[in-house]
Design brief:
mainly alpha; 0% strand; 92% helix; 3 helices
């Protein structure tokens, strides 16, 4: 109600939206249209250009992102294939290593068996030689002791022929045993 009184006091004969002076309305409308025209003439192209630049930049970023995505997918597929190749290569290397290990094991066993057989042969030959040498040494020692014993006995009781016959029989007995 107060606003109605204020408007009545100013003397608003044309209503609430149109000013009392028609010239003021026309000047205000003209100034508004001039400002709108200047905005449409000077500012609107800048806004359109800014929006166009922004949409071009966004399109370029989208194209770059798609290119990067394709490149990343390509790299991913190559890495996956390399990974598959690496798994196959690792399996091949493991198989090769196990074959090499088996071959080396067989070679080492064969070499050890050959060395053992050679050592047994050498030991057997050495034992035979030692046995033969020991038998010859014993036979020589027995023969010399027998000769000494026989000599002492024979010199006391026997003549030369009986002495020789006795030594020969003793040597034959020792050789047979």
């Amino acid at each position: 109600m107060l606003s109605s009184l204020l408007l009545a006091a100013e003397g608003v004969p044309n209503g609430r939206f149109i000013p009392a002076d028609p010239k003021e309305f026309f000047w205000s409308a003209g100034a508004f249209l001039i400002v709108v025209a200047l905005m449409a003439w000077k500012v609107l192209p800048l806004v359109k250009k800014g929006l166009a630049d922004r949409s071009d930049r966004i399109r370029a970023e989208i194209v770059e992102a798609e290119r990067a995505k394709v490149e990343a997918e390509s790299e991913l597929s190559s890495l996956r294939s390399k990974l598959g190749d690496a798994d196959a290569e690792a399996a091949r290397i493991r198989d090769e290593a196990s074959k090499t290990a088996a071959t080396l094991k067989a070679d080492l066993i064969a070499r050890a068996d050959a060395d053992a057989a050679e050592a047994k042969g050498k030991a057997s030959v050495e034992a035979s030689a030692s046995t033969g040498a020991a038998a010859a040494d014993i036979q020589a020692a027995v023969a010399s002791q027998a000769a000494a014993a026989a000599e002492s006995v024979v010199s006391a009781n026997l003549d030369e022929a009986a002495h020789t016959d006795l030594i020969d029989r003793y040597i034959e007995q020792v050789a047979q045993s």
